[in-house]
Design brief:
Number of helices: 13
Structural class: alpha/beta
Shape: elongated
Order of helices and strands: EHEHEHEHEEEHEHHHHEEEHEHEHH
Strand order of the largest sheet: 3-2-1-4-5-6-7
Largest sheet: 7 strands, mixed
Length: 405
């Protein structure tokens, strides 16, 4: 019998990935089943606080495997050497013949890792039985499983080609509820707007600091109708028509479509632009899906993700702002980094999309943003798409290649 033991921590993704891959049929994997045996039994070692994580993982695995997956609860004793030892020995004593044990220690606490390994090693040493102890860790940079601190598998590719999951599954692994995507967000087609024209004219407007500041203030006041002035509606319509490059139908501020126009001008156009660009390179970079305005909730607390795209199981969160001020952009960056880490841990990437230039004499530049973020050790997981990239499709293509390749 081959047994896989996973130590369950606060992030379900690593254990989901390892278990999902290990349970693949030999025909679905590369020739690594001797190094990573297909388990006949899976044990999830968890604490009282992470039992729901173990349950969520089990729910998302194929139904046919649920009969071979067992939970071992440590209660509040996840740091107790003796309790961990007794719990594991009790589970192992139920098996007659064990050929191999694969202990994945990516999750769980350090005491769980140390005491689990020590228990298994001594247990079979004392019995003097011929068996194989395999230890593994999920390498988040290479997307492979490292065995016994040496070889990494799959050897000729990476796990993202074998384990894919959608945004809904990722959220539900964390116990979150997927409410909807797109939702009531209006798009350029609904408004009869050419998005490329709108983008180019908006960028041109940013060259006049006073004008773009005035426009953003009008949009902000209209978005919060209590703050709106009498002249805001007419000012907005005039500027909005210029951005569209044509005159749209006249609408009252009380209509739903007018409210959509305000939201669109306030930044939804940038989210849509990024989503469209991602969809155009979906096949090239083997992206599984790209969703905009994803709404989710956890314990009645709601959150919204601007644009999310998955490559296999790897989440890329694009957080977008039309601001060109360093403090606002940094705030969005930190918000995105926190949310991405919360949902996907070390496997997540955050991309901040903004309208600051790459370089310049002013304080608000992409160069300054990178300097400010460098102290947070986010170099390999955080990227920036700046005004220069949004202006030039070739530069944006190059940036996306850097992110996804």
């Amino acid at each position: 019998m081959n047994i896989l033991i996973c130590l369950i921590g606060s992030n379900p993704l690593p254990n989901y990935i390892v278990t999902k891959y290990a349970l693949l049929d030999k025909t679905q994997r590369q020739n690594d089943w001797e190094k990573i045996p297909v388990p006949d039994k899976v044990l999830f070692l968890h604490s009282k606080d992470t039992e729901y994580i173990a349950d969520n993982i089990i729910k998302k695995l194929d139904v046919k495997f649920k009969s071979i997956i067992y939970k071992i609860s440590l209660g509040d004793n996840q740091r107790s050497k003796e309790y961990i030892r007794k719990s594991l020995i009790n589970a192992l004593d139920k098996e007659e013949k064990i050929t191999s044990i694969h202990l994945n220690y990516t999750g769980g606490t350090k005491p769980m890792s140390v005491h689990s390994y020590d228990t298994i090693y001594k247990y079979f040493k004392d019995k003097d039985e011929n068996f194989e102890l395999i230890t593994s860790d999920l390498d988040p940079k290479e997307y492979r499983i490292q065995i016994n601190g040496k070889e990494k598998y799959p050897s000729n590719s990476d796990l993202r080609q074998f384990v894919t999951l959608g945004i809904k599954t990722l959220l539900e692994l964390h116990g979150m509820t997927f409410e909807k995507s797109e939702g009531k967000k209006i798009n350029s087609k609904d408004l009869n707007i050419d998005l490329e024209t709108f983008k180019n004219n908006y960028i041109k407007m940013t060259e006049d600091r006073n004008k773009i500041k005035q426009f953003r203030e009008v949009v902000s006041r209209l978005d919060d109708s209590k703050e709106a002035r009498k002249s805001d509606e007419l000012d907005f319509i005039n500027d909005f028509n210029k951005l569209c490059g044509k005159e749209l139908e006249s609408l009252s501020s009380g209509t739903t479509k007018f409210k959509y126009m305000v939201k669109f001008a306030g930044g939804h156009w940038l989210e849509e632009y990024i989503q469209n660009k991602l969809m155009s390179v979906k096949d090239k970079y083997e992206l599984s899906e790209a969703k905009r305005s994803v709404e989710a909730s956890y314990d009645k607390r709601k959150c919204e993700l601007d644009v999310v795209v998955n490559k296999g199981y790897e989440m890329h969160l694009f957080t977008c702002t039309t601001s060109s001020h360093i403090q606002t952009v940094k705030g969005k960056a930190f918000e995105g980094m926190y949310r991405a880490s919360q949902l996907a841990g070390d496997q997540a990437k955050t991309i901040i999309v903004h309208l600051m230039p790459r370089k310049g004499t002013q304080v608000s530049t992409e160069e300054q943003l990178k300097n400010d973020l460098s102290s947070f050790n986010a170099k390999h997981t955080t990227y920036s798409i700046c005004l220069d990239d949004i202006k030039d499709n070739n530069k944006l293509d190059k940036k996306l290649s850097e992110i996804f390749s």
